[in-house]
Amino acid sequence: MRYTPHTSADREQMLRAIGIDSIEALYQHVPATLRQQSKINLPEAVSEFAVRQRLAGLASHNATPADWSLFLGGGIYHHFIPSAVDAIISRAEFATSYTPYQPEVSQGTLQALFEYQTLICQLTEMEVSNAALYDGASAAAEAVLMSRRIQSSTRRRVLISRALHPHYRAVVATYLRNLPHVELEEIPFAATGATDTEELARRIGDQAICVVLGYPNFFGVIDDLSSAKAVCSKAGAHLISVTTEPLSLAVLKAPGEFGVDIAVGEGQSLGVPMSLGGPAFGFFACHKKFVRSMPGRLVGETVDCEGRRGFVLTLATREQHIRREKATSNICTSQTLCTLAATVFMSLLGKSGLRSLAEANVLRAHDAFARLQKAAKLEAVFSGPFFNEVVLRAPDIERLFAQCAEHKIVPGIRLKDYYPELSDSFLMTVTEMNQREEIERLVHTVGQ
Amino acid sequence: MRYTPHTSADREQMLRAIGIDSIEALYQHVPATLRQQSKINLPEAVSEFAVRQRLAGLASHNATPADWSLFLGGGIYHHFIPSAVDAIISRAEFATSYTPYQPEVSQGTLQALFEYQTLICQLTEMEVSNAALYDGASAAAEAVLMSRRIQSSTRRRVLISRALHPHYRAVVATYLRNLPHVELEEIPFAATGATDTEELARRIGDQAICVVLGYPNFFGVIDDLSSAKAVCSKAGAHLISVTTEPLSLAVLKAPGEFGVDIAVGEGQSLGVPMSLGGPAFGFFACHKKFVRSMPGRLVGETVDCEGRRGFVLTLATREQHIRREKATSNICTSQTLCTLAATVFMSLLGKSGLRSLAEANVLRAHDAFARLQKAAKLEAVFSGPFFNEVVLRAPDIERLFAQCAEHKIVPGIRLKDYYPELSDSFLMTVTEMNQREEIERLVHTVGQ
Amino acid sequence: MSTPSVNNQRSRARAPKLIFETGSPGRSAFSWPAEEGKLEKHIPSALLRNDIANFPELGELEVLRHFTRLSQRNFAIESQFYPLGSCTMKYNPKINEIVARLPGFAEAHPLAPPELLQGALTLLHELELMLAEISGMEHVSLQPSAGAQGELTGLMLIRACLVDRGDPRKKVIVPDTAHGTNPASSALCGYDVVQISSNERGVIDAATVEKAMDETVAAVMITNPNTLGLFETNIEAIAEIVHARGGMIYLDGANLNALMGIAKPGPMGVDVLHLNLHKTFSTPHGGGGPGAGPVAVTRTLSEFLPVPRIIKHGDRFELQENCPKSVGRVRAFFGNFGILVRAYSYITALGGDGLEDASRMALLNANYIRKKLARSYHLAYDEPCMHECIFTDRLQQRSGVSTLDIAKRLLDYGHHPPTIYFPLVVSGALMIEPTETETPETLDDFIDAMLTIAAEAKEDPELVKDAPYATPVRRLDEAKAARKPVLRWESSSRADNSED
Amino acid sequence: MSTPSVNNQRSRARAPKLIFETGSPGRSAFSWPAEEGKLEKHIPSALLRNDIANFPELGELEVLRHFTRLSQRNFAIESQFYPLGSCTMKYNPKINEIVARLPGFAEAHPLAPPELLQGALTLLHELELMLAEISGMEHVSLQPSAGAQGELTGLMLIRACLVDRGDPRKKVIVPDTAHGTNPASSALCGYDVVQISSNERGVIDAATVEKAMDETVAAVMITNPNTLGLFETNIEAIAEIVHARGGMIYLDGANLNALMGIAKPGPMGVDVLHLNLHKTFSTPHGGGGPGAGPVAVTRTLSEFLPVPRIIKHGDRFELQENCPKSVGRVRAFFGNFGILVRAYSYITALGGDGLEDASRMALLNANYIRKKLARSYHLAYDEPCMHECIFTDRLQQRSGVSTLDIAKRLLDYGHHPPTIYFPLVVSGALMIEPTETETPETLDDFIDAMLTIAAEAKEDPELVKDAPYATPVRRLDEAKAARKPVLRWESSSRADNSED
Ligand SMILES: Cc1ncc(COP(=O)(O)O)c(C=O)c1O
Ligand SMILES: Cc1ncc(COP(=O)(O)O)c(C=O)c1O
Asked: How close B29 gets to chain A, by Cα (Å)?
């Protein structure tokens, strides 16, 4: 059988060694009533060649940037990935190892994670980072949960910006729904597209656990973290920033510079393919003083019995396998290989490369926006500054999307399902991968 | 600059360390008359992304089996390659190491080559194999040269079958052209498509160095090695078999079983992509008694100073870097990574897999042939048994190829440039990769 | 006897530096054509940052060499036997890596219109059906990112259903043999955890559940086979009791590799279970993920499944977002799609019979090891096991050699150790799960090593207690790491790295 | 003082078996749907063989683990500094591996009609032009599979041209510093080899050539820079002499990495040269190939170039097979196309300035090492070098430490040794070519190691003479290997493995 190497001779000899005469004997203690009578009802085994054909067939029924012009973002971005990234994460030593429970033979993974933690701290200007969580949305939820653990139990309100990615708000709600003494409230956004911090100031009161903002937010707008921080400080609430496009942090002031308490986000932009939105990873960084309340793995530096530097999983007493129901989170398997991709990606691009890539996004997105305004009379819905995506209003949006589809263009993400009041608007994203010709074609098509 | 890591600070500091103030100082001894005045006249450096776009563009202008039905062989075959093969040869430890001159840190390459040599011996039933040569054609030429070295210098005639691959005959001629005391003569083929061994018997005389036959030959026909061997033995000539489709050796009697003296061939079929005909490798196997006359690298087993088994390049006294103009060949860099691919490929398919793949070729090719005979009245030009390719005569071959081209089919290789008398014929190859539907379409198209 | 390292002064190769300790200011492995325009024109400079301090500046070869060397400091399935109990470290087929990287999958955008994602949606739909068939359940959601998130999702489904019936209840019963994620997920779902003990034969008695079960209990979490590698023989009876009192059965399906084609969870009375595709279905573990933890449920629970749901309309697939009773979203987008592609590829390659064979050979390998080591190591439970067997260090403790020492010594023999000190109910547990993809020859190698270590433990205990010797680093000071955590590199001295 | 291995009894990991010593009858990692029909129906059974005796029978994981472990016993550019003189072990860019595997290239069939190969032919044509521009020659053939085949092809071109003029001539002049392939290729082309000596400054005097040159000499083969890393300063004068007597200049371009943008071979009076794309143009060496050794020629020689030639008609490319004066075919099909794609990718990425920078940095790195080691090792020629510098073991010989010992000791420091004992004119040569893709930090690491070894050679020569210690195997008995060659595994005893 594929992947099971046992020949019939092997089976015989092993059964003999065990002292039984059939494999069934090994599960005789499975009650007869539960034994499966019929075979698993699935198609027959096929050759590797057939598998390849089969999946290539399915893959060919998805649109890719090679045959469609996609101006899509909204939390997942098409960015260039140097071929060296896949070369490294494809190495079996990284790809086929387990969570590094045996540090003596896991220094590769452990050191890479230590480097990842450092890179996230540098990118966010925060003091500590964990070794990542599932995705940006669950990272946001875990941030709220950690804040709740840290704050006095008299505080019960979690304030979340309506300009935060709708999926993220939904996930936070799901994670909180079953927990006692906590309410989730949404803060509206202003005409700038940024969270309305004046409204926030009015609403925050003195019982808020934390305030959660997008940076940049779902509209691509760069939220005003400094005002938000001022409001939070006064109210004794934690400020949590959520970044769905981490490439922006190469040019934008880092959350840490605003005194954000917990900075989380989605890491996909940093060297991980879009892959329908997963797998990538959620990054999670915060103040050093919170470290023993953090969720997820932490890798720390130490020495071996000969004094050589080495790395280990540490502060495990926070985790489920030690603390069980008292753990800071239930997470076990995380997204390590994706964080490795990000570590290699950030190391390759480095200080100047990451910045120039981010600049290319800003400039190309604003250039496309300017041409659309001119040629196609599309107006921005919001006035706030944006990174690489912007919300545009289209008088006849149905027709516009239909026209574009005819030219194999998807101009952006329609917002009607997320914001009824924006049913005539869409979120257009432009990255460095959207070629000039594509933008030309978009402008021309929409201009008609 | 891409790939040169030196910062300007690095350059400064290194120049200072060397004690010069400009790089030009390092080539001041290059005569001014020879110094390049103008810059290299090539396009500017481009990003990795641009390189990828550029080459993807070029690649898209070649036909591949994905969009065309190609019934092409003639020395290069489209066979299935398990993904594990590329996974191994992509490992930097194999791909970016040099010829194993330092055995202590090259045991990976050396052991793999030792295994390769053994696999070739098993496949050909010969006693020794070298670590491969450039390709099948140059291997054929080297075989003739070795035979010439071994035979008494009174022998001067090299008899080569006209049914051997035309490129191979051309390369042998090129290699012999400048050498003294050797003539190349061609032996015709019979109505079977096999080499005319009766004619060979008549012509061989007692001054022949060697006889060179294809097995299978260019027409796909399985040459009669046993009669050829009988003739050669009587005449004291070496028999050299040349296999362009080594997969056939999984079902055909091995050259060694016929007493062939030197068995060479092209290895591409064994796990190496077609890649426009290269790189792959030429295999070269012979009697043990010839070993010190062999061309190319040889890996041998030995022990280290602690008695552990290890492998080294051996019998180097045959080679150019020791023997210089007296070397058995001028070859230095060979095709090691391709032989590694073949080693992994043969190990994966193994005894039963290689056989079943070969059988699939025979059966599918004969099935296609039978349908073409029935539906399209195409006749085989030759009567001899064949492996996975057959020569067909088409009354109106121009029209047939034109018709097929309209349906994105290439029915085979036209023979007019190689054999004027076969200008109305073509060589059709069918491998396991030619899907049933493709064969249907071929039969249907040709049948019209 | 203190033992010199094998990396003695004769071997002078340097340990790898940190990426931050290499490179040079101004270096980069990346180039991108400059765009015209100025950043400040579009974003107020008050919002712009300076260069990222101490961020890497290396060339391409430098980066590749750094991470290649790091990789050489890992054990992995493809270079070592890796019998980590409860982790199902089976072969991760190469073809899965190829298909997951097809542009049609790797470059699909989750928010593209569904018409442009029909290939992906077809795959997801078919994978749901495959997993439902294999587990004997009605419906599947592929959203959860890993087992623990599957547990959380599954418990949320139970809770949502109970709320719908008018009472969420308060408690979840968890056996003492359960994986730590079980109680942790229960707490995260707002439940109090009641721990029950398994009996002297390592399984749960119906009576124990009977005693603990009441109208405040929402669910009982059962792992089957449990973490002792034993089949929970009373599961039917337990399910009856729990259902009779209005509770539900959550099955931790992490060990499904023991059951495929042998016994489906569905008929056991399971209401919801999660699967670990990164265990049973061969997706690579990646040094700690990504994985995928789909949940499979009964018809009753299906209306509560997370959104989006994939709905088939004729031969088209659509996404359903508003399902009034759904627990909502558990993560953004569609789950770890790239992992789901690999699992689909694996199931397609093996087919039903292949999966059954996998489970049967997993049992055969585990019992072979159990039998061969039974004389030299103390078996926690001396009876046939399913996919893994648990030994203890009781015999070796006589000469002061512990499970940890045995594990470390195995490294010198080139094998990854079993899972150690888990499950907690077995003191000094050595939890061995060979999986079906290992040959008897490899098992024999491992068995030889274990037997030799048993002998060493008798004759030269110090040799074992100071192990390992052949690893890039030797035993690491974990206490030091926890006492004054250094969790990141810093340009300045390490002092300020301590917690305030 | 005998030195214990670092792989002492504490490290018990097994050395890898041979693939033939693993597996089990009936195992296979491969499955293919059976075709209906019987073999015997189509091929007479007299022509059919039995199963291949002792052929491998393994599972997929077994095979992968076997070769993965083997790979871990190699040094390579991506994990070690690899300053092998004359081999130009520079970084092999990953993007080259990606583009070479594009189906449009990897699955192109060489005998498809040219209309279906326009992409490949365009690439080949443009690469010919690029290499002509870089080398300053008129025309290029990409056929030769490696440098040595390039030499043979180049000499054949010369001979064909001389034959065309009525006299093939008899001899080729080769300097004593030449690579072994030069005389070997000359012999293979039917020429007698006349060796001339380079002068005390390591280069060839015009006078020496003057003396050796006569009407029987077809060509002089010059390597520039030569294998001492020195520029042949008299090459113009030499070319004049040779041309005056009707001979030609063959340039061995293996060391072109020193010249790009600095000095073109063409203007030096070169008639034909070969390039090693697997050196100068970054294609991976693969443990011994595949490479590519294109030849570049003057207009005079172009009509003799091997077939097929690629001809541009408007914007289409065609293949020209009948060129009456061509030397014919030197190999089947189009040369090592996959390697040519990589070289094209490399040149495209760097552009003209990038190539010039590569050569300049290659010089800088080599001279940096030359300078830093000059006090501790004897320099064969104490003057600025081009891309590589040559030291000897003269100083270390005083304490009985040889070049071989230094090379082996370097392995313990994790660096691949330089090329040793070549060129032959330097006794105990250590030929160091760092290439331009290495950082100064890496060079300093290497320099430190070399300096430490120089010190060790003084203070503890035995330590160096018994090196290496940290490698998977230590010094191997090469004499034994040659005396009774064992060139293949055999099921039976090894005895019958000896030569008759
Ligand atoms: C029995 C059991 N349950 C649950 C889990 C948690 O799964 P995951 O690590 O995918 O979150 C594991 C894996 O460690 C396990 O072994
Ligand atoms: C100077 C010189 N000439 C010729 C060659 C031969 O090139 P190849 O090994 O590609 O045949 C080499 C490479 O070893 C070389 O260094």
From this structure: 38
Task: Verify whether the Cβ–Cβ distance D60 to A47 is below 8 Å.
Answer: no
> Is A178 part of the contact surface with chain D (CB cutoff 8 Å)?
no
Ligand at minimal distance from the CA of A133 is 1
Q: Whole-angstrom Cα distance, residue B382 to residue B363?
A: 18
Question: How confident is the prediction along chain C (500 residues), in pLDDT tens digits per residue?
Answer: 333 333 345 667 778 999 999 999 999 999 999 888 999 999 999 999 999 999 999 999 999 999 999 999 999 999 999 999 999 999 999 999 999 999 999 999 999 999 999 999 999 999 999 999 999 999 999 999 999 999 999 999 999 999 999 999 999 999 999 999 999 999 999 999 999 999 999 999 999 999 999 999 999 999 999 999 999 999 999 999 999 999 999 999 999 999 999 999 999 999 999 999 999 999 999 999 999 999 999 999 999 999 999 999 999 999 999 899 999 999 999 999 999 999 999 999 999 999 999 999 999 999 999 999 999 999 999 999 999 999 999 999 999 999 999 999 999 999 999 999 999 999 999 999 999 999 999 999 999 999 999 999 999 999 999 999 999 999 999 999 999 999 999 987 443 333 33
CA distance C11 to A54: 50
Q: Are A68 and A445 in contact (CB under 8 A)?
A: no
Digit-coded pLDDT (tens) for C61-75: 999 999 999 999 999
Closest ligand to residue B332's CA: 2
Contact residues for D341 (Cβ-Cβ < 8 A; gap 6+) = B55, D96, D99, D100, D105, D123
C474-495 pLDDT per residue, tens? 999 999 999 999 999 998 744 3
**For chain A, how long is the longest CA-to-CA vector?**
83
> Would the CB atoms of A83 and B48 count as touching at under 8 Å?
yes
The set of chains that have 3 or more CB pairs under 8 A with C is: A, B, D
- What DSSP character marks residue C80? S
Residue A13 CA to residue A11 CA, distance in Å, equals 6
Measured in angstroms, the CA of D31 and the nearest CA of chain C are apart by 10
Chain C residue whose CA is closest to A332:
C148
Task: Give the span between the Cα atoms of A164 and A219, in whole angstroms.
Answer: 8
Which residues does ligand 1 sit against, CB inside 6 Å?
A 332-333; C 86, 146-148, 179, 181, 223, 227, 252, 254, 276, 291, 293
Of A80, A90, A92, which is closest to B49 when you measure between CB atoms?
A80
Residue to substitute in D84, D86, D255 for testing ligand 2 pocket (most ligand atoms within 8 angstroms of CB) = D86
**SS3 labels along chain B:** CCCCCCCHHHHHHHHHHHCCCCHHHHHCCCCHHHCCCCCCCCCCCCCHHHHHHHHHHHHCCECCCCCCEECCCCCCCCCCCCHHHHHHHCCHHHHCCCCCCCHHHEHHHHHHHHHHHHHHHHHHCCCEECCCECCHHHHHHHHHHHHHHHCCCCCCEEEEECCCCHHHHHHHHHHHHCCCCCEEEEECECCCCCECHHHHHHHHCCCEEEEEEECCCCCCECCCHHHHHHHHHHHCCEEEEEECCHHHHHCECCHHHHCCCEEEEECCCCCCCCHHHCCCCEEEEECHHHHHHCCCCCEEEEEECCCCEEEEECCHHHCHHHHHHHCCCCCCCCCHHHHHHHHHHHHHHHHHHHHHHHHHHHHHHHHHHHHHHHHHCCEECCCCCECCEEEEECCCHHHHHHHHHHCCEECCEECCCCCHHHCCEEEEECCCCCCHHHHHHHHHHHHC
- Which candidate, B362, B190, B175, places its Cα nearest to that of B264? B175
**Nearest protein CA to atom 6 of ligand 2, as residue:** D147
The number of the ligand nearest the C-alpha atom of C283 reads 1
